[in-house]
Structures are given as structure tokens and as C-alpha cells.
Amino acid sequence: MDLTQGSNEKKHGRAKKMMLWFGIISMAMTFAGLTSAYVVSKTRPDWLTDFELPISFLWSTLVIIASSGTLVLSKQSIEAGNRKNATAFLIGTLILAILFVVFQFYSFSEIIQQGYYFTGSESTITTSFIYVLVLAHLAHLAIGIIVLLVLIYNHFKQRYKQGQMLGFELGATFWHFVDILWLYLIFFLYFFR
User: Looking at residue 123, what DSSP letter applies?
Assistant: First the structure.
């Protein structure tokens, strides 16, 4: 009976991982479509060619890379049985995620201060695309923050330990995807102006 239960748990684990990867691939395709539309729109005569992205986007990039690092360290701490370090790294990851959001909104305010608006009669197609790409990413990041909160909650409930890390691994995979997605977007916006 234990063998059957173990086999069922493995099947459920594989099914959950497949569902997560299906969602990740769907999200990646959405952003591939948006960035393809951006490339096609660059041929428009009203496309801004001298527009510079704020440096705060780069700071937010460093912050989100650091958040992936702290999440990896939290997993290693949990597997090593060091709950205190795991807690610190998980909370650090959440703080870095919130700091990323702060930098994003600061970047928006810098763009507006330069006289570029995202919507309305004073907007351009260029800034509207940036707005859509970044806000779509922030929507996924909001889900990622909820995932981090669930990971922290389950950590405090002691649901993760060596050999019982499926939930943590699923959450971490989603978080790392959100991070990689931002890296793709920031490199895309910097190199395909």
C-alpha cells in the first residue's frame, strides 16, 4: 500500500509540474507576441528613436536577480534543516520583490517627467508598448509575490523539509520564470529600440 501511495504522489507531482510548465509556456508565448508586435511597430513613422529608458530599470534588474539568489539560498537552507536562515532568505526575497515593484513605478514616474506619457493624446506608440510590457510583467510579478507569501506561510507551518519540497519547487520555478521574463524584457527594450 505504501508503494501505491508513493507512486500516486509521484504522479500528482509530475502532473502539477506539467501544469505549471504549461502555464509558463503560455505566458512566454504572450510576451513573445507582445515583443513581436513591438518589433513590427518600430517601422512606424511616429516611433521614438531617441527615447532612453530610465536607469532605475537597471537597478530593478539587479534587485530581481538578487531575489532569485535569496530564494535559492532559502531552499538550500530548508534542505539543510536551517530554518532560521531559510526564514531570513524567504523574507529577504519578499522584500526584494517589493523593492522591484517600487523601482518599476519610480521608472514610470521618470518617463513621465521626461514628458512621455503612456496613454492619452500625449502618448506615443513607443511609450504605450513599454507601458503594456512592463505592466503585464508586473501583473505576473503580483502573482509571484502571492506565491512567495504562500511559500513563507507554508515554511512557518513547517511543510517543507528534505524530501518534501514539491510545493516549494513549484513556487520557486514560477518565481525564477518571472525573473527570467524580466531579464528578457529589459534586454529586449534596451537592444531593440
Answer: B
d(CA 69, CA 59): 16
Q: Is the pTM of this model over 0.85?
A: yes
Cβ neighbour number for residue 163 with a 10 Å cutoff:
7
pLDDT digits (tens, 9 = 90+) for 88-141: 999 999 999 999 999 999 998 998 898 888 877 778 888 888 888 888 998 999
| Torsion-angle region of 6 (φ positive above 0: left; ψ -120 to 50: alpha; else: beta) | alpha
DSSP for residue 47: -
- Cβ atoms of 144 and 97 within 8 Å: the answer is yes
> Under a CB-based contact definition with an 8 Å cutoff, are residues 16 and 170 in contact?
yes
Q: Record the cell numbers describing residue 5, joined without a space.
A: 501511495
Instruction: Break the chain down into helix, strand, coil percent, rounded to 5.
Output: 80, 0, 20
Instruction: Tell me if residue 165 falls in helix, strand or coil.
Output: coil
Question: Which cell is 26 given?
Answer: 503560455
Separation between Cα atoms, residue 172 and residue 175, nearest integer Å? 5
Per-residue burial over 51-61, b if 16 or more Cβ lie within 10 Å, else e, is eeebebbebbb
